[in-house]
Design goal:
- By secondary structure, the chain is an alpha/beta fold.
- Helix content is 48%, strand content 12%.
- It has a six-stranded parallel β-sheet.
- The C terminus is likely disordered.
Length: 240
Amino acid sequence: MHNVLLTWSKRLLMSLGALLLLATLLFIGGNFWVLATTAAYIERQPQQCRPAEVGIVFGTSHWTRRGGRNPHFHARMRTAATLIEQSQVEHLLLSGDNRTQAYNEPRAMWRELYRRGVASEQLTMDFAGFSTYDTLARARDVFQLEKALLITQSWHLPRAVYIGRELGIDVTGCVADDPNVTVGWRLKLREWAARVATLGDLYVWGREPYFLGTPEPIELPRRAPIDLILPSLNERFAAP
């Protein structure tokens, strides 16, 4: 009897060890895959970010749990305002959590960007961006975006870009980091786990957004046709 229990104990430990090894390999492999396949679509400096008509700004709390200013929030707002100022994006989709009346990420982003000089007509709020996946699914299905520039921190962008491209949106990423902020290990670990969970969302259990609703396409100002612009430029620079 003792030998039988010992044998089963060894088998159990070996099985648990094999599962732990498999989980570790999936964890590392999943993170490596997301990072490797998105690196070419991410730029670290705003002036190098690829222009797009619409930029998507991901929501986060205006304040930290300790009551201080959230540097991640302000880095995103600063980068988004810079992209508008430099005409690298024409419009911003502000997507965040608004599950209660007391917590409204899109409204906080709107106020901060307006304070930074972004015109109200260049801002659209998405109140049902409860997660990165929800934000991008709604960008495609509700706001009818086929291309966008994603604006968030460097640790978040690989997952966001990966989701967007897997959903069929032509997305690139623009890093919104604060050089004075060090990312803690808890945040890094949570993001590593989120990348692996994203692969499950996309390929295993077929995640759906929490709320979609009816389409609300973002309408941008119409540009003059190129054949009308060129004659006027030729006239302007023509020799006297």
